[in-house]
Design goal:
The protein has about 270 residues and is of the alpha/beta class. It has a single domain (about 1-265), classed as Divalent-metal-dependent TIM barrel enzymes (TIM Barrel). It has 9 helices and 8 strands. It has helices at about 15-25, 45-60, 80-95, 110-135, 150-160, 170-175, 180-185, 215-225, 250-265, and strands spanning about 1-5, 30-35, 60-70, 100-105, 135-140, 165-170, 190-195, 230-235. Strands 1-2-3-4-5-6-7-8 form an 8-stranded parallel beta barrel, surrounded by 6 helices. α5 links the parallel β5 (about 135-140) and β6 (about 165-170). The protein starts with a strand and ends with a helix. About 50% of the residues are buried. Bound molecules: 3,4-dihydroxybenzoic acid. 3,4-dihydroxybenzoic acid binds near residues 168, 170, 194 and 237. It comes from Streptomyces bangladeshensis. This is Sugar phosphate isomerase/epimerase.
Length: about 270
Amino acid sequence: MKLAFSTLGVPGLPVPEVLALATAHGYHGVELRAHPEEPVHPGLTPAERADTAALFRSTGIEVLGLAGYARVAAPGEDAPVLAEIRDLLRLAHDLGAPFVRVFPGADPDRPREESEALAARRLGTAAEDAAALGVRILLETHDSHRTGADAIRILGPVGHRQVGALWDVMHTWLGGEQPSDTYAALAPHLGYVQVKDIASAEDTTPLPLGTGVLPLTECVDVLSRRGWDGWLCWEYEKRWYEAAAPLPGLLGAGREHLARLLGEAA
Ligand SMILES: O=C(O)c1ccc(O)c(O)c1
């Protein structure tokens, strides 16, 4: 498996410094948080996109994906949601990134079936744009659909290979789902896996990998046993927890922890 980290862990850090961290600590790729407060987002000009892509190429570090904020199951018109996804897809294409992350974001006060049908319709439409650009849209296990069982109620009806799943191990654990059950649900759809660690369900402040309660060993075991050979991406939620220790000082030990889990699972 290949290893990446998300720039959610290094808010606002310029791309050359992100690449220097990836190189220094042995990560193969980076997931870019595609938000206007970050250096890479859909507002970049063609020249800025070309410069960013060239920076990645010069280091050999891959852009794993763009973490966008489109909410595919949210109430409202389809057009703005589709426009947001298309902007992310174009940016991913220009940067050579294979994946774009979207959130579910259903309104809990609305009938579940209605939100899921809405999400499936939008993803099915956006899948055609994704196919034309050679990018895959991944629905993250998050908010209204935090388990694999939840996510496949949307992904199953879409049934398009340009639309898949992003397994965030914290949200599936918070949803009470065992890693083997998440894997069984998501396997036909799985794009990649976000790993992280936290102290408890009540305290989700990010911790160094391996020092919290999340079932990282079980997740890596199930992926390895089934011969899955994709990406593990460390998503350290520093942006939302200012008091958390800075990620750069943790990246080396985090990579070693993941390498150890992978070695022991092999
Ligand atoms: O991109 C984000 O902001 C974000 C926040 C929380 C998460 O659990 C996550 O996977 C992503």
